[in-house]
Amino acid sequence: MARRDDTGSQHPLMPALPHGASARSTPLNKAASSPRIRTGSPTTRHGPKTVAGQSLGDSFNLKGSPPWSPRESTYDLPATRNFHNKLPPLDEMDLFVSQSPNNLLSLLPEMTESIRQLVVHYPEVYMAVWEKLRAVLEEAETRDRLHGRNVELPTPPTCATKPDIHINIHGDGKIDSYNWLKDRENPEVLKYIEDENQYAIAALSHTEPLQKLLYNEFVSRLDANEESARVTLADGWSYYSKSQVGLEYRLHCRSIIHDNGSEEKHAYMDENEVAQSPEYRDSTYFRVGFLRHSPDCRILAYGVDGLGNEQFTAFFKDVETGELLDDRLCNIYENLEFSSCGRFVYYLTLVPETDRAYRLYRHELGTPVERDQLLYEEKDEMFCLTMTKSGDGKFIMVNSAAQVTSETLFLHANTDENDTQLRVIMPRKEGVTYSAESHNGKHFFVLTNENSKNNWLFRTPAPKRDSPPVDLISLRETVIPHREFVLIEDFQVRRRHLVVFERSNCHQNVRVIELASVGDVDSERRPEAPPCSIGLEPGPFDKYHYISFSETVYSLLPESINEEVSNLSKMALFGTNVLRFTYSSLVQPKQVIDYNMDTRESIAAYDISDYKQLRLFSTGIDGTAVPMSIVFRKDLFHQGGKGLDANPCLLYTYGAYGSCTDPVFSTQRLSLLDRGFVYAIAHVRGGSDMGMGWYEEGKLGKKPNTFLDFISCAEYLIKEGYTSPEKLAIYGRSAGGLVIGAVVNMRPDLFKTALTEVPFVDAVNTMLDSSIPWTTFEWEEWGNPEDPEIYRVMKHYCPYTNVRPQKYPNMLVLGGMNDPRVAFFEPLKWVAKLRSCWPPRSTPTRSLQREDNDGDSSAGPGNDDRMLLLRIEEVGHGGSSGQYSYLEDLAFEYAFLISTLQAPVFKIDKEESDHGEPMTPSSIRHRKGLFTRELLEMGDEQEEDKMDNESVYRQSISCDSCMNGDEGIGVQPSAARQSLQQLQLRQNSMLRYKEFKEGEGSKPARIYSRRRSTTLLEFSEKGTKQNGKPAPPSQGPRSHSKLGEWIANFF
To answer: What is residue 605's DSSP assignment?
Structure first.
């Protein structure tokens, strides 16, 4: 029964709790005006009672006599030790405070008065009181340090302004004070990059222990025995690749089961060995971009990028002997194919100035490169070549594509040196794109958008090699007509099945059509149906079924995300009834599934998860429903929180080129979800998540729809209580970085933090400069700003053009010096201009400024409490290539998000949330008590985790040129010293690889990571139980390929 005080009135500080109900969050400004909870009679003369029945003095563990006697003190003791405690009973306070930090704040004044009276009436306990209070104050100071509050930052770098006055084609006079930063050979530019890199590391130096903690979490989720799906080729061997503990790159293997049941395994290529070869030992970047096997499986061709600029050198290796052939193809594109006989190799070369693939060559193995035959040249600078081999192995398919127009040419793969004539399936037509696949060498299936938005599928005969030219379009027949609300994204052809990947209402579907009744496609051709007709497909293509999935939010990728396995599966599975695809969702790890199209059974199992995913819809400014995919951990989600009490949230988008942002699983993302984050994907216009009409509404002059959709999604998450402006971070890379740059100009008040990688932010200047690689290719996506209307729209949203003095969010911007798609100077110029509008950070002295109801400081409109950081490193568009260096970079980015959003430093284990109490973000922050000092001490310890014989450990190393004595993450060296440091790390990497090989089966070897920081982190002992691997660099121009787009969504 609730007690009453002397007056019989209810207690003025706490609202009444109905019987059986829990208290909800009480706003601070309303707490005092809600007198509901009753209190009892005055406390006893021994002070307020605790729940355990001990007095407050007893709870301080006072033993023995006080440190001084009353007569030794000049303090005047009160005549009586009785004092009136106005606080309610502690058991009632426990329930009230547990609901919200605002409830605790409402009680602090009375708590302070009670403590004051305690010390006044019982002065002998003052040291015990101080001891308890000091621990709380120390915790507050430690948390401030970890989250960057009240931390004195070094002086931000300043960039010299050198006004460049230019009058553009529209007569606008433009003054670009940072145009001089485009010169990568200028020592001043390199010095400014160095200063920015050093400042970024110094500004986040307080998070180094957190970075180490995150890195260890990432590594603990790597699967030491992770293997790709296996593909059995014509030689009887099953080919696959696997990761290696402690090593950056993959090992490629094959195995075979002999008649006696024994299994023979053979490693035919080790990427780590290639990385340490004389060719690449001293390079600062390394990535194996493609692997191709000859038809007889004796020759392996692989391409290596040693700079990050996506130009490859192709090597040829004898799989049986392990010897490298003398043939070598330099500065080629990533597409390479063998002829059917294995005697010839087809490859693409690049225009040196723009890196556009424009020439198709044929090389005969064993002959000089100078004798290679030029088969085709694309002279239109708007078009770029790609190449592949058809799934049935009959044709070499060459696609020449601009943004909205394409053309496919073909050449018989079983050819000789005299067959050099390429034929066209469907002549190029402005605004028409299509892709083609061969079926048994007798028909082409073609997917096109001709006279439609969402694509339709037709079939046409494939001419024989010696047949005269024929108009294939006149012979085509409709397989699947156009449908208004169903987008056909892709398709695959098997001997007896046609597999169609569709998308409708932001969901992916897989249709499997049986081709057995077509009689090996030799039956009579049926009349062509109108391409825009709607209805059931007549004839032999109407026997089909859809694959069903148990989840409503998921993602599918045809084949495997492993490039080599995907390429091998394409031809190896052609004659089978097996469909191989990769399945994932926001809560399900990626799985390669083999689906039997006859029995309709799949080899896969879905596990129950502690995480929940939802599909939400926000309402755009024009009334359009914009879909979102979100995921969070069930026990840590608290809807309806305000200000700092809300869940931290990371909102991601891309929104360009018609690329779909599919909801996929990421093991690294668990480190955010386990800290109470909500992860959200905004499927904004500009992608094709809702069909090609969705894409067209977010390109060219309608591009602002993309930014307005993103803002609407952010507003929806805040309005519905999923997060708050103080807890909302946003992220986008490449073209998605344009979205981030635009919205922080338009609505900086919505976001606390912004993270962007290789952002395309100087749209006006880049699109007006045709000398920059890919610019003319991009005009069909963004528009040519020489058009007055396009220029007007672009000038309105261009992030660089619209930078102005205002309170921006915390910002971390990442770029790559060797990026061929988004030049390094775009993020560099952008940050330089932002910094000129960025007020200096306030003094670290704690101020007594008022805070509003949302917890945001009311100091003024400046950015005095916000960080602006930039890092530009010697990488390409995809960032670091090694699996461990990638994780180290990601730990830096996550630490920035966690610190600036004031999210929990430690992840919350499941058992800690299973105690029956509400798990609000604030309660999470305080659940662990005084623990953060332990985290700070982590960075000062030299740890060595003992592992079993199958594991290895890593030790911190430092370079002779940049020794700083730091442990843990360490401080990033300057850009000017990076090259020397990276060369030394590469030499250490050679030692690492040798020690690893020598240490196999004997003792743990020292493992050094290919990275750019001065020290390395050790492995977590729990090591390698879960699945996960880093994202490879994306492919193609600034727009993603389907494979690169889907892989990018994993991370």
So the answer is: -
Name the active-site residue from 252, 412, 877, 1040.
877
Handedness of CA 369, 371, 375, 378 (dihedral sign): positive
The length of the chain, given as a count of residues? 1051
Give the active site residue among 819, 881, 899, 922. Answer: 819
CA gap 389, 397 in Å, rounded: 6
Of the candidates 761, 695, 771, the residue with the CA atom closest to the CA atom of residue 1045: 695
Hey, what are 918's tokens? 């509400």
pTM for the structure as a whole = 0.66
C-alpha dihedral, 397 to 340 to 391 to 317, nearest 10°: -100
Q: Which residue has the higher pLDDT, 486 or 530?
A: 486
SS3 989: helix
Is the distance from CB of 462 to CB of 442 less than 8 angstroms?
yes
- Concatenated DSSP letters of 317-333: EETTT-PEEEEEEEEEE
Q: Give SS3 for 458.
A: strand
- Per DSSP, 654 falls in state -
Considering the candidates 585, 734, 913, 1020, report the single residue annotated as catalytic. 734
Mean pLDDT, rounded, for 188-205? 92
Cα 233 to the center of its chain, rounded Å: 34
> Catalytic residue at 734?
yes
Q: Is 59 helix (H, G, I), strand (E, B) or coil?
A: helix
| pLDDT for residue 879 is more than 50 | yes
Contact (Cβ atoms closer than 8 angstroms) between residue 312 and residue 304: yes
User: Mean pLDDT, to the nearest integer, of 540-560?
Assistant: 82
**How many CA atoms lie within 13 Å of 877's alpha carbon, on the beta-carbon side?**
24
Residue with tokens 């809702």: 690
Strand 753-757, strand 728-733: pairing: parallel
Distance CA 926, CA 432 (A): 59
Query: Strands across the sheet with 601-603, in order?
Result: 555-558, 578-584, 591-596, 601-603
What pLDDT, on the 0 to 100 scale, is given for residue 435?
Answer: 94
- Rounded to 10°, the helix 883-900/208-220 angle is 130
Axis crossing angle, helix 126-146 with helix 101-121, rounded to the nearest 10:
150
Residues 6+ apart with CB under 8 A from 936: 142, 145, 146, 209
**Secondary structure of residue 118 in the 3-state scheme:** helix
